[in-house]
Amino acid sequence: MNIRKMLFIVIPALFILNNAVAYFIFESGRTVQHSYNVMLDRVLLYKQIAGQTQGNLRALNVYLMDRTENSRKAYLSQRDELNHLRESLSAQVKTIPATDLTVRSYRNMIDTYIGQEAGVIEALNGQDSLAYTGYYEEAEQTAAFIQAEGHHLVDLELSYYQPFYRQILIQTDVMNHWGVAIFILNTLISVLFAYMISLGITRPIKQLSVTAQQISDGNLQAPPPQISEHNEFGTLAKAFGQMQDNLKELIMKEKESLEKDKLVKELELEVLQNQINPHFLFNALNVISKLALIEGAEKTSDLTVSMSNLLRYNLRKLDRPVTLRDEVEHAKEYFTIQQARYRNRIRFTTEIDESGLDVYVPLLTLQPILENVFVHGIEGMEQGAEIKLVIACGAGEVRVSISDNGMGMSEAVRDSLLRLESEPRPVQEKGQSTGLGTRNVFRRLELFYGKKNLVDIHSELGRGTTVLIRIPAAGKEDGDVPPADRG
Fold first, then answer.
1. Integer Cα distance of 298 and 354 in angstroms
2. pLDDT at 282 over 70
3. Hey, is 136 helix, strand or coil?
4. SS3 labels along 467-482
5. pLDDT of amino acid 484
6. 464-472 vs 455-460, strand pairing mode
7. Most exposed of 52, 137, 231, 333 (fewest Cβ within 10 Å)?
8. Which of helix, strand or coil describes residue 386?
9. 393 vs 470: CA distance, rounded Å
10. C-alpha neighbours within 13 Å on the C-beta side of residue 407
11. Can you tell me the distance from the alpha carbon of 364 to that of 273, in angstroms, rounded to the nearest whole number?
């Protein structure tokens, strides 16, 4: 039985048992209380009538003696109270069988007394002022009978209810004993079930916590807890063991993945560091030699300095980050050499927000993209080629855009450049190179910032290409550079 079903059975059962005992005790007490109240109300009414009759007789005597207005009002008040008690006695619907006849006689005596009092008052107001004495004596005798009969009714009530109360007290005492016994039994059962349920909960949790602690300490070979599968903890233990196996498998895969990433990164760095296009160097040196023959030494010197700066920048350690400002200056040096080669066939324009040049980027981020523009985008154009570099600050990022009006690229080539986790070599078209340098730039940006989707490419065949790089603004601080990309 699982824990949920056990709780649904045990708790309602204990609740119903407790409520049943409490209900029986309550009903027994309520019955006794009701019977006692009924008997007590009648006894008090009998005593009040007897007392009120005597009080009424005394008030009448006082009025007969002094005949003042105050004594008359006092007598009338006592008479009204007696009439009220008489009405209350008449309203008593239920009486005990032993007092039924006596109560009717008692009411008749009260009516007789009230009539005799009325006769006294009437005789008092007549011509014979002493005629009331006979009525008064009769009223006095009736009052004595009422008092005696009232005591007799009280005795009858007490005698009738005495065995009944004794039986109720006996039943109440038995019920109290049963209540105590059931309370003790209920307490023992509750404690037993509480112990069993708590043990069924705490023991599996302790086993699971011990295993979890061993795993957190690095012991992935810790045996999973052996718990019966008949309750929720059995299912949890089974899932825990499966999770442990999955964790081992995941760690093994992660180790393999990290090792592969390390090898790929080292290979990318090595390939990118050695990726200086020999054809470009041959053409650049050829341009330098021709300028040296045709012109004076000034332009040759400037071009030689640019070439020297370019080579020096390319031979830096690739694991050291640089500012975007350095990359822009390097791109300008690179374009200066290309300008000497292509002359008026190309035009290089820039729109640069100076506030965005302090972010840190991987070394050789812009040159491979510019080289890809020359090789694949505008090399075949005889005139009107244009390359534009735009750097702008946005919300939490610096956007670097390199665009050209060259031949563009197909959707397949674009997708192969952006799918960095796919096969290492993208689709080749019409004898073009694989674009490995551009892919390395995109990959190094992801490794450097620890984020994906930092690069986007918009291109149309025959209308040009735009490469957009989103650099996180957090890269403005050197402390934000990942340790793996530092020297």
1. 30
2. no
3. helix
4. EEEEEEHHHHCHHHCC
5. 41
6. antiparallel
7. 137
8. strand
9. 10
10. 17
11. 9
Phi, psi of 150 (to 5 degrees): -65, -45
pLDDT at 427 over 70: no
Are residues 451 and 397 in contact, defined by beta-carbon separation less than 8 angstroms?
no
The 455-460 sheet, strands edge to edge: 346-352, 385-394, 397-404, 464-472, 455-460
Of the pLDDT bands very low, low, confident and very high (cuts 50, 70, 90), residue 386 is very high
Long-range contacts of 33-37 (CB under 8 A, 24+ apart): 35/161, 35/164, 35/165, 35/168, 36/165
Q: Residue type for 296, please?
A: G
Q: What is the pLDDT of residues 210-239, one digit of tens each?
A: 877 877 777 777 777 777 666 667 777 777
**Residues with Cβ < 8 Å from 436, sequence gap 6 or more?**
271, 275, 425
Residue among 39, 163, 149 nearest 92 (CA):
39
**Structure-block tokens of residue 202:** 């705490």
Please tell me the distance from the alpha carbon of residue 385 to that of residue 405, in angstroms, as a whole number: 6
Comparing CA positions, the residue from 365, 376, 337 lying closest to residue 272 is 365
**430 pLDDT higher than 70:** no
CB atoms within 10 A of CB 346: 21
Residue 341: pLDDT band (50, 70, 90) is confident
If we measure between CA atoms, which residue out of 461, 275, 446, 302 comes closest to residue 361? 446
Q: How many CB atoms lie within 10 A of CB 379?
A: 14
Q: Would you place residue 483 in the very low, low, confident or very high pLDDT band (cuts 50, 70, 90)?
A: very low
Phi then psi for residue 472, to 5 deg, are -60, 135
Quote helix, strand, coil % in the chain, to nearest 5. Answer: 70, 10, 20
